[in-house]
Amino acid sequence: MADTFLLNGKETPFKAGQMILEAAKGGGIEIPTLCYLKGSTPTGACRVCCVEVKGARSLVAACSTPVSPGMEVSTDSEIVHRARKLNVELLLSSGKHSCIACEANGNCRLQDLAYFYKITDLKFKEKEISDIPPTEDENPFIIRDFSRCILCGKCVQACNEVVVNRAISQGYRGKNSKIVTGGDSPYNDSECVFCGQCVQVCPVGALTEKKAKGLGRPWETQKIRTTCPYCGVGCQQLLHVKDGKIIKVTAVEDAQPNQGRLCVKGRFAYDFIYSEERLKTPLIREKNGEFREASWDEALDLVANKFKEIIKKDGPDAIAGVSCARSINEDSYQMQKLFRAVIGTNNIDHCART
Amino acid sequence: MTNSFADYAKAKLFILIGTNMTEAHPVASTFVKDAALNGAKLIVIDPRRTDLVDFADMHVQLKVGSDVALINALMNVLITENLYDKKYVESCTEGFEELKKKVMEYTPEKAAPISGIPADTIRELARKMASIKPAMLMYTLGITEHICGVNNVMSCANLQMLLGNVGVECGGVNPQRGQNNVQGACDMGALPNVFPGYQQVANADARAKFEKAWNVKSLPDKPGMMMPTMMKNLTTGKVKAFYVFGENLANTEPDIKHVEHELQSAEFLVCQDIFPTETTRFAHVILPAAAWSEDDGTFASSERRVNRVRKVSVPPGDAKPNWWIFKELAKKMGHEWTSNSAQEIWDNELSVLAPSMAGIKYSRLEGDGLQWPCPTADHPGTPTLHKDGKFTRGLGMLKAIDYIPPAEVPDKEYPFVLSTGRRLYHYHTRTQTGRCAGINDLLGEETADISPADATAKGIVDGEKILVKSRRGKVEVKARVTDQVPEGLVWMAFHFRETCANWLTNPVYDPTTQTAEYKACAVEIEKLK
Ligand code: SF4
Ligand code: SF4
Ligand code: SF4
Ligand code: FES
Question: What was the ipTM of the complex prediction?
C-alpha cells in the first residue's frame, strides 16, 4: 500500500521522498510557486508556496519540504493565504513592477498572484530607483531588467543545473543583491552562450528576449509547435506567431528530446525567413550572364525541355542531383522519385557527407 | 543513433569520440553535463580540449586521424586483460577470431607513437571503459570525415560490441547527425543505391514494388553516382545537367577553387534554394523555394524520431514548396502525381512503401513524434535498436581493421595539420544564421585557432591576421590563440566565405561513402608583414 498523507483533510497517496508540492499536484491541488524549478535543487527563496503543516511551528515551503506519512497539510487556510499575500506584497515593492510597460504582462507569475490576491495598492515602500542597478542589455538577445527581478534564483538554477553553462550566479549581499555573470561583466564578455534558458524560466519580466520587444502581447500570439531547423537533435520549439510572423521562439516544456531546452540557434536564429534577400521568383540566366525574372511556367518548361533533350541525347544518367538535408522528408522523397521514376536514373544523393 | 537522447541524462559512462557537443549539438550536450554532475563518468577522446573536457574524467588528446590505431590498441588491452564481455561476444557477434588476430598486432606500445597517447594511458583508458556497464558511445564528424571514415565507424562498433554495450538502454553507437534532416534524407532514399526505407535499387522485387506504386514501366537497377562523383563528372562531360536542391556546394565542399571549376563546367545547372548563394551564381535556372515554417512536413532527427514541422508564415513572392516544384516538373515531363501536400505524400506514399515507417502517419505525430522502426499502426516506435543484442542481420559483425594515416600528412613545406568543424553561433555557410539579427554580433568572423606554443614560436599574437596556406589555396584570417588546440594543429570552420577552411581542405574521400577528409590536411601558417 502506498503511503498517504492528509491534503486539506483528504487522504492522498504520495511517493517516498516526494515534496509537498508534487504530492499535492498528484492530489489535484496546484500550489503557486515562483522560484521552484523542476529537477533543480530548491532555493526556497520566494515563500509563496507556503502551506500549513499541523504540528509545525511555522508555515513551510511546499517545494522543499518532503511529505511524511500521515502529515496533515492545508494549502487553502486563511493563514496560508495571508502569508502568501504578504510575500507577494513584499516582492512587488522589491522593485518597480509597472505592468503596462512590461514584456511579461499577461505571462507573469507575480502578476497572476497579485491579481488573485486583489492587490491594488502597494503596502510597502517601493525600492528607490537609485538602488536598482541599470538594465543590462549590451548583447543582441537578452534584456535583464533588475527593476523587475524578484531574486528568485531560477535563472541561476537553470544556467548552472539545467544547461550547466555556469555563466551567472547570485552576487553581492543584502540590499545590493543581484544576479551577476562572472566578474559582473556584460553578458557579451562572460561565459554566457546565449542559450536563453534563463529567459525561458524567469517567472516575471526581469529576463526577456530583446528581439521580441514590443512585437506582441502573449494573448495576441498563437503558439505553434514545430521542430528546430538546425542540428540533428530535433528540439521541439513553440513558435509565437502574430499576424503570420514569428516574433519569438521558446522551448516546448516536457517534450522529447529537449525537455524545455534550446540553444542559441534554436531560440534566436529564426528570422532568416523574413530576410529581404529571399529568392522570390524563378530566375533564368541570359546569354550575357545576367539573371532575369521568369514565370514558373517558363522556368519549369526550360528545365523539363533541357532534361528531355539530355535524356534523348546522352541518356538519363547524364543528369544528376543532390537533395537537401535541411528540408522536410517529403521534399527529399519527391526529388528521388523525380530522378528515379521520371528521369530514369539513380544519380540522386544528398550532402550526408558534409 | 542506435539509442535515444532520453538515455543521456541516465547514462553511467560516456565515451565521446570526435564530437564537440557543446557547439554542434548544444542541447544534447546539456544532458551529458547533467549526467556528469550526477556522477556519470565521461571520457572525451578528441585532439582538441573541447568544452566538455571540463566535465570529463579523462581527456585523451589523440593525434588527428589516429582513431583506428587507438581503438585497436584499446581492444588489444580488453582482450589481453580479459576485460571484454565474453558472453555478449559469443552469443551476439561473429568475427571475433579475425578481430582478435588483427588487434593483437596493435599493442599499446605500437599505438602510442601513432596516436600520441602513452601506452599506459591506453591501458588505463581500456580498463576504465570496461569498469562500468553500459557505456554510451557518441561520435560525430571527427570519426566520419576521414578517408578511413567507414573504418573509424566500424571500429567504434567493434569496441562497443566487445564491451557488450550494443542493444541496451544507455549504451550503443550513436552518431549525432549534423543537419536537422540528414537522417530523413537518407530514410527517404535520397541516396544512389536505395529507395525510401533503405530498399535496394538492385533488388528486382523492390523495383517491381516501386514501379507499380509510381506507375512506371521500369526503374533503373544500377546504383547511381555519389555527389563527389557527380561533380567530378561535370568536368568529364559524363554529367550534363546537375540539379542542386538547397546546398551551397561552392562553400561546403573541399577545395573551393576546384569545386567552382566543376560547377562552372556544368552544361545545365538548376539550383533550388531560399537565398542566392555562392553556388547559385553558376546556375542556369534558379527556383525559389519555401523555407522552414512556410510549409507543413516532417523531419527525422538523429534518434530516428519523425517530428512535425508546421507552417506559420507564407513564402515570399512566388516561392513555392519544394515538393510542389518537383511535382510540377514531373508533370511537365509527362507524369501526373496525385499527392498534393506533404501529408498526402507521407500518409499515402512513403509510409505505404517503407515498411520500417508503415506505422507512422501524420495523425500519430501530434506530440513527441515517433522513432522508426515503427512497422504497424499500433507500434510505439523504437527508442533502442538491436535490443538484447539482436541485429538485423542476425549477429553483430566484428571486423578486423587496419590503421591508415590521413591522405596528406605534415611535411617540411606544410608542417601543420588543419582540422575543420563548426562553431556554436553559426550554421554551415551562414545562408540562414548570417541573416538572423544578432548572430553576427556574437561571431562576426572566422579565426584560425592555434596553440599558444605555436603562436609564440611564430611570433603571432592573439587577434592578428595571419596567412594559412595549403597545396590548394590560402586565406588571410585572424589568429585565435587558445589552449583548446594542441601544438601542431590549426583549427578552422567554414562559416565565412573569404576565410572559409574549404579553400584549403583536401578533396580526398572515403572509398565507400565518398565522405571528404575535412578533418585532416597539411598547412603552413605565416605571420603577415
Ligand atoms: S532574473 Fe528572473 S529568474 Fe532570475 S532571479 Fe530575477 S526574477 Fe528570478
Ligand atoms: S543565456 Fe544560457 S548561458 Fe547565458 S546566462 Fe542564460 S542560461 Fe546561462
Ligand atoms: S535548438 Fe540547438 S540543439 Fe536543438 S535542434 Fe536546434 S540547433 Fe540543435
Ligand atoms: S516556490 Fe517554494 S519557496 Fe519559492
Answer: 0.93
